[in-house]
Design goal:
Keywords: Repeat
Protein name: Nephrocystin 3-like N-terminal domain-containing protein
Oligomer: single chain
Organism: Candolleomyces eurysporus
Strand content: 5-15%
Pfam families: NPHP3_N (PF24883)
Length: 750
């Protein structure tokens, strides 16, 4: 048994058995105070620093300049104030969901109603808002999928802005929820975003909000209900003459798109019951604002989901909500007729044809059943510069009634889903298999990280990952220009924003609607994960110092997340291990090797074994390369601590193997290279922290003594703390031990 003057602090990780007394602090872990003294806090702080280092602080969100700040706090954002002089608007801007606003770049151009359509509902909404004597200050406009609710919201905003009402900014704030956006599929930034816009719409609010921010700089860590009081209610109540202030309209669209209560969006989507909870919470926040009798009116737009309808019809809401059924109040057939006539006239003019009614025009109106999304999709499908619009329209209307699904698959949108099937079937048969593969990648892209999200560039990376000829992905999607943002003039469309309407995405993921065109998300995740692992195996230590290919970088960025999703879905089995503790992140580096090896022991699928093999070999190669580095390792002090800690955790598993002494990482620890000594020293310090690793520590020492390693002659070598070694297994192993160590052993024996 090896005994040394080392002791593990009570807060350290990995302690097994009685602690060993430490005589000195490792250089890599010592911190220097203001006067130059070493910080004497216990090693528990080191582990805490380690964990903090693995909690990402800020990452920029797609489409927006606003960062999302990741942490275990209410609302999913961290306080990022550096001092109390930070301007309040800038503070709010840093934490607002900029993409959720009507004028945002993310929504440009914003959906608007076609001229001359939706006039009835627009008139009802604007009239309700302008009615000063109205008692109900919340209006709920609801309609099923595809009836243009978001376009109505945007058109209301622009029409009110254009009116001369005697005061500026009649629309005080907007928030457009959207399930595919990290900023917009959660209520995390809802209150801050409203406060940011109201502060600009009503300038008097700024100084009062500024006072709140300076007095309570942790406001962004508070619950949304507290943010509402501090950032909106109290500033309003501080204004003079608030009772006679003109009411501002707050537009909240797509509450049914608010599906994520977590701080991160790239996580597995919540189950329906969790979505209900978070959506009802948003409604309650709106009701709370209304209950304070502020000069605010609220326009809510959503699908008539059962829980939303039930909540808005309950006692607290019933007396203050004005419901408006978009489906019932509007002349949808007339709106569609006006839209179709205008669009067919435009297409005819482009082809220099007479502006007259097309033979199939009435058939299109009939098949649309008043759905604007149906008519708009048909128009995009036939508006093809390489095709004959009249022939394309004839084919669509001809087959729409002959290929309708049977009654068992009938839905209120059967005509729309049949249209989608017709569009898919119209694609060349020889390319349909490839088209479905790429569509699966587009759906999966919501969970992937790309260096460049422009779909042309992203699909080139996916082409290389899937070993397709360059450009195949883009070409495969071109026939789907009616339902995807692809083709001429749309080269800059993002891969995670290709679906023109969410109904097409839902169609693809619903086998009872899409039939042979269903996308199996689990199968696609497995295919991409397998391809990522194949690509990563081509990246070895021989490539160090050279620039990695974009496809390899893509695989390195995404494989771990894909594995985690797969473990919850297609890799899940009855024998699977229970999920990790909530407080212990799935991707925490200190758990990574244990997670892979243990979880895979219970799975027999080839993809699981591929992950196991890759994880094992990659860890072995990475630690060995760094320990025997032939070139300088550019590792910060923090990085050195993290790597050495991970290495020690990994070695706990290594020594459980019967032939652990022959393991490549163990051999590398006995023969560190000239540029790996600092890391080696840090790892040796970590080995002292757990008695379970003392046999390994003893073995490393014996190997280095046998090989007469010059490291042992150095004054600061980590073995210099050894007091004594009890009964040596092979005394010959120590016959060449440095004099300082042998004398220490002799004196102890005396």
């Amino acid at each position: 048994m090896l005994r040394a003057k080392r002791q593990l602090s009570h807060g350290s990780v990995g302690a097994v058995g009685p602690p060993l007394q430490r005589q000195r602090s490792s250089i890599t872990r010592a911190s220097i105070g203001p006067q130059g003294e070493h910080d004497s806090q216990n090693d528990g702080r080191r582990i805490q620093d380690y964990r903090r280092a693995h909690q990402p602080a800020v990452y920029n969100q797609q489409f927006s300049h606003a960062p999302i700040i990741n942490g275990d706090i209410y609302g999913g954002v961290h306080n990022n104030i550096q001092d109390s002089t930070l301007d309040s608007l800038q503070f709010l801007y840093q934490h607002a969901a900029m993409g959720a606003m009507h004028e945002s770049e993310e929504r440009c151009p914003p959906p608007l109603c076609h001229p001359g359509t939706r006039d009835v509902v627009l008139g009802r909404v604007i009239g309700w808002y302008l009615d000063k004597d109205g008692q109900k200050k919340i209006m709920w406009v609801h309609a099923p999928l595809g009836y243009g609710k978001t376009a109505v919201a945007g058109t209301v905003k622009e029409r009110l802005d254009a009116m001369e009402l005697g005061f500026d900014n009649p629309v005080g704030a907007t928030f457009f929820f959207w399930r595919n956006s990290a900023e917009r599929n959660s209520p995390a930034r809802f209150i801050i975003t409203l406060a940011y816009q109201l502060a600009q719409s009503i300038p008097g609010l700024c100084r009062h909000i500024d006072s709140v921010i300076k007095s309570k700089p942790g406001i962004v860590k508070m619950a949304l209900e507290n943010q509402l009081i501090e950032l909106i209610v109290k500033p309003f109540e501080s204004l003079p003459n608030v009772d006679i202030m003109p009411s501002r309209l707050v537009i909240v669209d797509g509450i049914d798109e608010c599906i994520n209560s977590d701080r991160e969006s790239l996580v597995e989507k919540k189950y329906a019951e969790d979505q209900e909870v978070v959506q009802i919470r948003v409604l309650d926040l709106i009701h709370s604002l209304h209950s304070h009798h502020l000069p605010l009116s609220f326009l809510i737009l959503s699908r008539p989901e059962a829980w939303i309808k039930r909540h808005l019809e309950s006692t607290p809401f019933n007396d203050v909500v004005e419901p408006l059924d978009l489906y019932k109040v509007e002349d949808h057939m007339n709106d569609v007729k006006r839209f179709v006539r205008a669009e067919l006239s435009r297409i005819a003019k482009r082809f220099e044809e007479p502006d007259e009614e097309w033979p199939e025009e009435q058939g299109l109106l009939r098949h649309s059943e008043g759905h604007m999304v149906y008519a708009a999709t048909v128009i995009r499908h036939i508006d093809d510069e390489y095709g004959d619009p009249r022939q394309l329209l004839k084919e669509i209307t001809k087959y729409s009634h002959t290929n309708r699904p049977d009654i068992s698959h009938s839905t209120p949108f059967s005509s729309l889903y049949e249209l989608y099937r017709q569009i898919m079937r119209s694609c060349p048969q020889r390319n349909q298999s490839l088209m479905m593969e790429v569509l699966g990648e587009v759906i999966e892209s919501e969970n992937l990280f790309f260096e460049h999200y422009t779909h042309n560039i992203a699909l080139r990376v996916l082409d290389r990952l899937s070993r397709r000829p360059p450009g195949c992905g883009v070409k495969a999607l071109r026939p789907l220009h009616a339902v995807l943002r692809v083709g001429k003039g749309k080269e800059d469309s993002r891969i995670d924003d290709l679906f023109i309407h969410s109904s097409f995405r839902e169609f693809l993921q619903s086998p009872h609607l899409s039939f042979e065109f269903a996308v199996d998300a689990d199968k696609e995740t497995a295919r991409l994960l397998s391809a990522m692992l194949d690509r990563m195996t081509s990246t070895t230590t021989d490539t160090i110092g050279s620039e990695l290919e974009d496809v390899c970088l893509f695989a390195l960025h995404n494989w771990c997340h894909s594995w985690a999703r797969g473990r919850r879905t297609f890799l899940k089995s009855k024998k699977n291990l229970s999920p990790p503790d909530k407080k212990d992140s799935l991707f925490h580096p200190s758990r990574i090797s244990k997670f892979f090896v243990k979880s895979i022991e219970t799975d027999t699928l080839s993809i699981a074994h591929k992950v196991a093999s890759h994880a094992q070999s990659s860890l072995d190669s990475a630690f060995t390369f760094m320990l025997q580095a032939a070139m300088p390792l550019i590792l910060s002090e923090d990085a050195m601590v993290l790597v050495s800690y991970d290495s020690a955790q990994y070695l706990h598993q290594v020594i459980s193997e019967p032939d652990w002494r022959e393991h490549k990482v163990v051999r590398a620890l006995g023969t560190p290279g000239p540029w790996g000594i600092d890391l080696w020293t840090s790892i040796i310090d970590e080995l002292y922290e757990s008695e379970a690793l003392h046999d390994l520590l003893k073995h490393i020492y014996k190997v280095m003594v046998r090989d007469k390693n010059p490291i042992l002659e150095q004054e600061d070598n980590p073995f210099d703390d050894i007091d004594c070694i009890d009964e040596l297994e092979l005394e010959s192993d120590y016959e060449s031990a440095p004099e300082s160590l042998t004398s220490s052993i002799d004196s102890d024996d005396e």
